[in-house]
Fold this protein.
Amino acid sequence: MNYIIMDLEWNQSATTAGANPAIPFEIIEIGAVKLNSEKVMIDEFSALIKPQVYKTMHYMTGKLVHIKMAELKHEQPFEEVMERFLEWCGEDYVFGTWGPLDLTELQRNMVFFGFKPFMNGPLAFYDIQKLFAIEYGEGKERRSLESAIDFLNIEKDIPFHRAFSDAYYAAKAFALIKKKETLEHVSYDNFIAPPDKQHEVHVKFSDYEKYITRTFATREAMLSDKEIKNVNCYLCDKPSKRHTKLFSPTGKYFLCITYCEEHGFIKTKIRVRKNDVGRFFAVKTKKPVSAEDAESIISRYKKLKEDKKPKKISK
């Protein structure tokens, strides 16, 4: 199996009114490095793309990547570049990117220009930025690519902020991810959410569990599903003592704290997502947390509960 370490540059409308919701970001450059199973570089891919949707360069894009629209007018359109890229990728490979966004926008562009997405469901890939944080940090901090390259003492022999150069440096960083337990932390691109139960994702890592649900017609139907509401301990599947109900501290996600006699405090987190055709799905994680972190969440729950109580009117 090979690794395709990829980076994209894209353009967008200079105005909100001029944006096409089906393709808010149009790819103008693809850069990639192919690594073999030993993480040795064996090939490279680089191509500029002729724009078909946004034909004026957004000022921030031009400033960041130093590409002018005049350079792109005589390049191949996306359809032709994508055909070449897919052929170059081959048959047996997994993607790697610095951060989680590129595969979503690549598949969005693919669908817009008449290609099928890579899978009929979430696409497994390596988020090298996350892997770097796990192997060299505490797992939470997300460094910029250049900062990571400096940390790893990798020679900076080509400029940053072009698709190929960023793919090249991401591949260099990926080659230095050595621990087997780090590489077990596969990420999933959810541009195509699971269309049915068969395509749902259930994966258990050394330190947490992830579940990506099928889609539902309404948010309410999703949140009432038995498996989504289940907060049993993910390590032993035994019912745990609830210290909170599922609650939403911000309106964007739901939390629940439970206590397992064998494995301690467990945090359940449910992020609600909506796909491009208006159906709802959830990304649910369960992980152990310290007593201190659990108490902090329990305190937030109690405060929200207290704030919702009707206030007594003093006479």
About this structure: The chain has two domains: 2-183, 196-307.
